[in-house]
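Researcher: I've got a protein sequence and the SMILES for zinc ion. Could you write out the 3D structure of the bound complex as structure tokens? I'd like something to compare against our soaking experiments later this week.
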Amino acid sequence: MICDNCHHRFKGNFCSHCGKKSDVDRFDMRSIWEEGYTFAKSIVVLFFQTVYRLTVHAPQHLKTFLFKDREFLLPSIEYLLFSGTVVSILTFKFNFFQTGYSQFEPGIHLTFISDASITYLNQFFAYTEQYSSLTNILAIPCFTICSYLIFYKEHYSLGEHLIINTYIAAQQALFLLLLSLLLLWNPSWKALLIDNYIGASIVYNFWVYYGMFAGKKINTALNAALCLFLAYILSFVFNLCIYSLLLPYRALIDPFI
Ligand SMILES: [Zn+2]
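Model: Sure. Here is the predicted complex with zinc ion in place.
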């Protein structure tokens, strides 16, 4: 018999080279149900464990995941896709950020920036509010580059920085769920909640950097603050570039124009 998987020639029920079964079970409704149930159960349980672990002791649990146990957290890309999806649904349903919240006041005149630029920036801010998941995902490489350069001495690889920053972004997005529950309870808190949400996101990010990248304590704190500052500026510039590139095609993808 020849193995489907590795093309090794073998006798018996299992490939002696890669261990694959020589025949596959036929699908029936029972096996489909059992497979689906086992998959859903393991994903759901691991998802809630990940939410809990990254909320209470993110730095320690991220280290466990990176260096000891890869089954300890839901894989970062799945976690990000899930939280991004949740945020997109919630954003469209509750219009979280479509408040004109981050707009310059109409008719404002600033000496260092032209009126045309203010209009352009206001359109950009409206876009970031509408596509908050996309802009957050595009910010991940910016945060990764900044944390990699600033915490270079801690000997984490670029890939590890990417994983850490992906988890941070996903976790911040999930905190929006909490926000939406509070908003359902009292819609008039919107501006206050969004202010606090942004503050809490920054504090969360700071806490993870500070906990992950041990060093001289005061230096780590200063570096974490510097890293966040630079990463926000870099993400802003990067997203503005992407927006400028997308602008000619915006009417194609934007149902609100
Ligand atoms: Zn084989």
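Model: The radius of gyration is 23 Å. The chain has nine helices and no strands.
Researcher: Great, I'll pass this along to the crystallography team.
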